[in-house]
Amino acid sequence: MRTIRLYITLIFGLFTVVLIAAPRLTVVAVVDGMTAENLAILRPYWQQGGLRTLSEEAFQTTITYPHLVYGGNETTATLMTGVTPERHGYTMDTYFLRRDRKIHAMLEDETVHGIGTKLQISPKALLSPTMTDRMRLHYPNAKIYAVGISPETTVILAGHAANACCWIDAETRQWVASAAYSEGLTSAAFEQNKSDRIAALAARQWTPRMDILTYTAPTPLERKKGFAYEVNQVLPLSPEANTLVIELALAIQQTEKLGTDATPDMLMLQLNTLSPKAETDQIASAEQEDIYLRLNQDLGFLMEQLDRRIGHTNYQILVVGRPMLGTSAQTMSDIHMPILPFNADRAAALTGTYLMALYGHERWVDGAYGQSIYLNRTLIEQKRLNLETIQRQVANFLMDFEGVQIAMPSYEAMRYPLLSTTLSKKHTGDVVFLLQPGFRLMQDEKRIGDRVIDDAPASPLLFWSGTLRPMPQNQLDATNVADLITEY
User: Which of 89, 142, 325, 347 could form a disulfide with 127 if both were Cys (CB 3.0 to 4.6 A apart)?
Assistant: First the structure.
């Protein structure tokens, strides 16, 4: 039975009961790197298109995250589940495993196989239900599909209960999937693979769609030479990636008849606004602006097709950006706030040397990852030493490091407001530290699990519904987004 929402309106002093059906199809698009500032800058240049329509007709706000942001899918997980990493368990894209002292992908799952890919991933690591899971609980017969550019983001969008999810394999130029979902590779994706649709778009050259001087922020080099890419070389960070996601989403809608019966359905999409040379989420080049312009067209095409196929009042769209790169180090340096590196591996090595001086020449530290130091608990037990004492000693030692704002044993970190929402008990080390503003976390001399420079990054949210429905009156944070969709 189709859900009916009840609204009471006041007309000529009389209360009138209005029965309005819930949308048959919900589209959720998470857009990598999209910022409210970029949307405001480009709005005057959009005469039409999806972002133009949303900017005029959608409920709009910006959301913040009540936990540390590293530029990975911890933000996607929070958006989808409505809870923070301490509960959904996805703290970073990778984690340190004590058993083998190696770094593992958060979603790796050796019990499932990939379809068209060797990658073995599933949503098993997500400990909380996502908005797709809630939809499945309310409507067991709902049709739920996720389409994306990267595997991790797409799987998180799909949640545990989607029919299928598909993402672009940039090497094979094919749609691939995880067997963790009952339908595997959708028939629509299979047909596009047969026709080599991804390869056809990847064979194109990406050049400016307008005169280079009409862009708002071309670099000096772009002013002289424009920009040109072989899409094959930059497929995940090209406008064609967004086009492919929208095309497959519409093909799935048509093949699976999403939004055409009384049971609400869902389409979950990952889109992108970051260009190959982007060093910041803010538009700093013509190529990044070009992606926005083409994304505007793609979203406009999506809405036009849904209008035609299922009707203007039968669907709703939520578009939300997620922070990826933050503010660039060069921008911060220009305002005399340089970004300094903090090497977690060096901190772990020095900690090991410090403990050797105290307790003897043994391997006292298993490693470091993110903002945690992992002690060798097996050795500590064998030596019959007090773990809490060593944790306290290491925390005090780390406090002397340049860039460390606070360090504490993990059992105390769970009581520290910002860390308590950021850390997951399953993946947290023995000693946790928080960096001062202006320091960038490094791992093996690389920006792995790097925190976005901005202390409190904000994301734009646009929510459009063809059906009359109440909109939030209060400021939202990332944990409120799932409730916008799952209010049934």
Answer: 89
Task: Tell me the C-alpha distance between 37 and 98, whole Å.
Answer: 42
Domains along the chain? 24-50+103-325 (3.40.720.10), 340-442 (3.30.1360.150)
Q: Strand 265-272 relative to strand 144-148: parallel, antiparallel, unpaired? A: parallel
For 218-228, the pLDDT digits (tens) are: 999 999 999 99
Close Cβ partners of 14 (under 8 Å, ≥ 6 residues apart): none
Residue 79 pairs with which residues in a beta bridge? none
Say if CB 65 and CB 478 are below 8 A apart.
yes
CA dist., res. 22 & res. 1, Å (int)? 11
Closest CA to 51 of 26, 75, 33, 34: 34
Of 290, 272, 283, nearest to 226 (Cα)? 290
For the four alpha carbons of 319, 323, 324 and 328, in that order, the dihedral sign comes to positive
How much is the pLDDT for 445? Answer: 56
| Whole-structure pTM value | 0.92
* Predicted confidence (pLDDT) at residue 130 exceeds the cutoff of 80: yes
Task: Give mean pLDDT, residues 321-345.
Answer: 79
